[in-house]
Amino acid sequence: MTHTTHWIDGRPWGGAGERRGEVFDPATGQVTGRVDLASPAEVDEAVAAAAGAFHAWREVSLTRRTQVMFAFRELLNARKKELAAIITAEHGKVLADALGEVTRGLEVAEFACGIPHLLKGGFSENVSTRVDSYSIRQPLGVVAVISPFNFPAMVPMWFLPVAIAAGNTVVLKPSEKTPGAADFMAALWSEAGLPDGVLNVVHGDKAAVDRLLDHPDVEAVSFVGSTPIAKYVYERGTRAGKRVQALGGAKNHMVVLPDADLDLAADAAINAGFGSAGERCMAISALVVVEPVADALIAKIVERMARLRIGDGRHGCDMGPLVTLAHRDRVASYLDAGVEAGAELVVDGRKQGIDGDERGFWLGPTLFDGVTAEMPLYTDEIFGPVLSVLRVPTYEAALDLVNGNPYGNGTAIFTRDGGAARRFQHEVEVGMVGINVPVPVPMAYYSFGGWKQSLFGDSHAHGTEGVHFFTRGKVVTSRWPDPSHGGINLGFPTQD
Ligand code: NAD
After folding, report:
1. Residue nearest to ligand 1 atom 38, measured at CA
2. What is the pTM of this model?
3. What are the tens digits of pLDDT across the range 242-261?
4. Candidate list 281, 297, 367, 392, residue with the active-site label
């Protein structure tokens, strides 16, 4: 039985918490650990440690900070399999997928190794006679990162390397469902030479989140989770005067035009619909097929679904269980609801054979046909292995569907027509677009984020927007002593 506790000021927390949550192995359905759930006072301890470390950390040279980033990158790369095993044990996703998320997180650490370049400002000589002007970017102070259950390593890593490299100190509040990865990474940061207090982890639930949102010493909040909580975090955090970026839920459409390579599209629909059991914010859940190719595409998808192996993520299966029993049951409830609403249940995931403990939180890949825009299958973010086919007559109808949806995280188009793809990328109201790429997660040097109800705030994660989010700009205008000076002038400064 594991016990996950907070990581404060460079070491595991020594206190005795009042509340604890249970951590499950979703593949066996068994409780495998406990996690401390922080009280407001425990959050205060973590924020105090971060605040105490800030002034020294921001003075550390860029050279030294970069060395810490490189050291962390090397340590995490060397131990990524251990981290992947922790993720699989708590989340259920298959080991290869867990390793994939660690790798995507590592890419942000690699991006942050370039922090000296990323923080470079501009310099203009002689903006006025013998006057120079230049811009610099400075850290904010203590920043909070609040992350969801589905990417226990990658989502914290979207923020930590950039925030830390830019000179901030951090309090991370991971999901209480998958807490182990955060402490593993915090220990590696320490080993890499990060001073105590620069990165702190508090485990917990709403009580911890609310304290972080209200704490006067927290300058900024990066949140990732479901849309209702993202909106709440954004509103409460900004009301308290903080800078907030809150990434929310999604309903991602994959549009297939009649000229698409249907084998490529079928593979993509399977990978993006059922990878990580559909528990990805970039998962495809709405397959929008422009007729007349729906029958042919569905036949190819069904054929592929029959070959998928569902089971324990440690057994080399294609897809693992859902994260909790409650979530499994919620996702499964959409199967009956879909049939009642009039959709055709083509493949029923409840009938799938499982290579794993029967007490695990299983639900096999499910396919619906004949889904329409009014059905809960389409209107709700299901966040499970349920793929809905919507048949439309034209490209315009497909675009209307995507643009009429309240979410705008990711989308993809499958076609052989470059002109149609170019038109789609131009017209679609979604933050991340794939062209014959079903899960278009941007590289670390671009920024990750959706539009509409998928993101509250102005800044996307990592890339240039991430650097801007974690820093404040300053512009300096300087004149060095010169034998001549202009004398008193009460007019507004202008160049001459
Ligand atoms: P969630 O919203 O339930 O939880 C996210 C975080 O908020 C967790 O740390 C949790 O402890 C905290 N939280 C939960 N309820 C709260 C409350 N009432 N008040 C304050 N804090 C609260 O999300 P989840 O179930 O962990 O993750 C899945 C969701 O995250 C999906 O909706 C998915 O689309 C979304 N997600 C979005 C992105 C993105 O980049 N847009 C990435 C990953 C996941």
Report:
1. 281
2. 0.97
3. 999 999 999 999 999 999 99
4. 281
